Amino acid sequence: RSVLHSHAHSPFTATRRRLLLMNLLVVSAMISVMAIAVYAWEAQITDQQITQDVMDSASHDVARNLEVLRDSNSATGVPSDGDPGEMYEPSSPNVFTVLLNAQGHVVSDPGNVRALGLPDLAAVRPVLSGSSASTLVTIGDDERAFRLYTNAVSDHGKVVGALQIGVSLASRSRQLHGLLITLLLVGAGMLVLTALVSLFLADRRSEE
After folding, report:
1. Quick one: DSSP state of residue 114?
2. How far apart are alpha carbons 196 and 20 in whole angstroms?
3. Residue 175 phi, psi dihedral angles, 5° rounding
4. Which among 19, 31, 151, 160 could bridge 155 via Cys, Cβ 3.0 to 4.6 Å?
5. Hey, which bits of 71-141 come out as E strands?
6. How far apart are CA 101 and CA 163, in angstroms?
């Protein structure tokens, strides 16, 4: 009798497994597509926002920067502007600025970012040479990265210096990491819910 009972239920058991697997595969595919789209959209939006922030900052204090460059009498040994002890925090989303003269020497460094290996002179040289009006680069690695925008400072049409504006990408990385964790948790929850609903519907069908 138990053998007959087992044979009677085996077709239903196989059907239930196929239904569960099919539902999980479909929902997994949908979740993956939506998660990738959301993550890619957020990454693009935050990247554009950061670039826009550093470019907008280039138009601030233009007259003051030109005045500082005019007042700099020495190409070397010029003290940085601000307290050198107040170093820019790499995890900060705030923008920092570095002002350099025509020789590529730092004239103003309020955030003391030289302690972090900045400014990036490779991005400054094309601007000082006049071959490029500005440069936009991303430097660093996964642990410490910066978006840098370098703009020429001109006096009566002559390039007399460069202003490098930058921001750490650590805040953006944390934001995207948090979004990724959220998407994974939501996806896992939806898969569990799909499995429970599929089993419930399969059991109800077997009772009919």
Report:
1. G
2. 9
3. -65, -45
4. 160
5. 95-101, 106-108, 134-140
6. 9
208 HSE (CA, 13 A, CB side): 7
The amino acid sitting at 206 is S
Lowest mean pLDDT among 22-26, 103-107, 137-141: 22-26
**Tens-digit pLDDT profile for residues 13-64:** 777 778 778 888 998 999 999 999 999 999 999 999 999 999 999 888 888 9
Q: How far apart are CA 102 and CA 46, in angstroms?
A: 33
Taking the CA atoms of 60, 175, 49 and 114 in sequence, report the sign of the dihedral they define: positive
What does the alpha-carbon distance between residue 73 and residue 105 come to, in Å, rounded to a whole number?
12
The radius of gyration computed from the CA coordinates of the chain, to the nearest angstrom, equals: 29
136 strand-pairing partners: 149
**Tokens in use for 160?**
């007399």
For 31, phi and psi rounded to 5 degrees? -65, -45
- Percent helix, strand and coil across the chain, each to the nearest 5: 55, 20, 25
Reply yes or no: is the peptide bond before residue 119 cis, omega within 30 of 0.
yes
**113: which DSSP letter?**
G
Reported as a single tens digit per residue, the pLDDT across 167-197 is 999 999 999 999 999 999 999 999 998 888 8
